[in-house]
Amino acid sequence: MAKVTFNEDRCKGCGLCVTACPKKIVQLSNRMNSKGYHPAEITNQEACIGCASCAIMCPDTVITVQMK
Amino acid sequence: MDFKKTKGLTDAPLHYCPGCTHGIIHRLVAESLEELGVLDRTVGVASVGCSVFTYNYFNCDMVQAAHGRAPAVATGIKRARPDDIVFTYQGDGDLAAIGTAETVHSAARNENITIIFVNNAIYGMTGGQMAPTTLPNQITQTSPYGRDVTVVGYPVKVCEMLSQVDGASYVERVAVNNVKNIMKAKKAIKKAFQNQIEGKGFSLIEVLSTCPTNWGKSPADAIKWLDENMATYYPLGVYKDKEATKND
Amino acid sequence: MAEKILMKGNEALAEAAITAGCRHYFGYPITPQTEVAAYMAKRMPKIGGTFLQAESEVAAINMVLGAAAAGVRSMTSSSSPGISLKSEGISYMAGCEVPALIVNVERGGPGLGGIQPSQSDYFQATKGGGHGDYHLIVLAPASVQEMYSLTIKGFELADNYRVPTMILTDGTIGQMMEPVSLDAVEVKQFDKPWAACGQRGRDHRNIINSLSLSPEELEQWNLNRYARYKVIEEKEQMYEEYMMDDAEICIVAFGIAARVSKNAIVEARKKGLKVGMIRPITLWPFPTKALKAAAEKCKAFISVELSMGQMIDDVKLAIDCKKPVYLCNRTGGVIVSSNEVVAKIEEVSKM
Lengths: 68, 248, 351
Known about the structure:
B: alpha/beta; globular; C: 351 residues; alpha/beta; Rossmann fold; 12 helices; 19% strand
């Protein structure tokens, strides 16, 4: 079981994490962050396999992955 | 796997455009320095171009160099402080156009430094002009009809060129367009620093990188364009590894 | 009495740099400064130092910047066209406040010019040379002994003020042989807590940088540096006065032109002409105080230069144009003769 957290205010909404996720559980939210970007979010935490592909692909080190 | 931000990066938010893969390369360099335990004795050399502000991001002492001169500045630092780990972080305009002489001759001297060369086939900071590595027919602000090789010549293939320089120890081209390639890039960058720690001399890692803004593509399309166009013109792989040759 | 040995100017300069603790020399061949590089190439490996012949003057000055940024005493030497190439790096060094020694053994210009002695890089040396708001400290030796002493002084001034310092000399002083006393002078060393040499437990990162995209910040950096320049102008003006006690005509000349002028003054005095000389040793800061004082008692000034007349502007500025300033010059690598200077003195005395 893995926990993925996004440092939302640092996210630029580029979406590279979305394409990197093998489980297709990362998406850009409808919200806007303080910079005016739509930050990435995880849609189904339970389905996360903790591969950290999203974090590896993220240019802004927004994502933290913790294995439980 | 656990994943958290490396101590090799400061807390400053990166100024790069959304989806620009400079940030990934920054992380790989910073992680390598942290994992090798050398952050505390590292001096980085920032260059001119999009990476001009790297002194704000790498969590170590930094010197800002003039356009193209980073390898000369790094040479001075390394000669003055041989126990320091010294690296440059340069773009294609900086390293392969105005700084060609400094690049080639620091390789020829087998200067014990590490060069991270970010090739995104365009001048990003100035707004998308033709770079020495712009592909044939690629449209940029200063090649609006596509790079015409009969007029402005061909792109410079840095790794291929340096592979012919006797002094160079380790030259590899990697890309950061997918997770697998990023892992490979990390391995190469870490090895380039390990080489320096072991006194093996000049290492240069060319990293194929995207510029969604100036390529006029979405971040995802830019990744695809890199894969289909850049990686075919600039094949990935090890171009020189003195150590490996020795063991053959 | 200290023992004296016969040395070339360029070699005395190189030996002085080593005495000053400089162990990092980066250069590129060009006439007429070659002896400096050759001397360093021989000496540095024997004392654990670095001599590196770079791929260009541009690379050499940036190597100096790197070594100096890492906190060691470092230097380069070149001649006029080479200094033009180094000017970019010198501007960066001034901007990021990295102290080092730059030697210009001048030759005639512009362009490739010639290889004979000249002083036509005065503007370049004293007014900046590269882009932006900055000065170098500029020292002008007039003897082989001064090539030695001013080189050591140059490193001290550079480190003390974090200002790159230039030795501005010429092919004659560089190539001439004279007896020199290499006395073990006490060389001042300075702590460099700002150096980018690896944190090693330091609680902050050191960043050597000349870039700011905030105009207000960049303005402040320049103001801070100019405040330091003001202190330098106040405290570091160096000059020699020669037969100035009763002088009615004051020659202003530096380097080789000052040596020629000394002979001319002796000859002119034989003819009953009351002439003396102020020889600037620091070209920047220019010895304005001494010139201002001279303007109170002298009726005219003659600027003797190996250029089309560059320092003459600073002479006029120093004395607020209160007295006439005349020019006695040769250029292109021709050295002004004692007779020409005497003739000028006679001409001015009749005005």
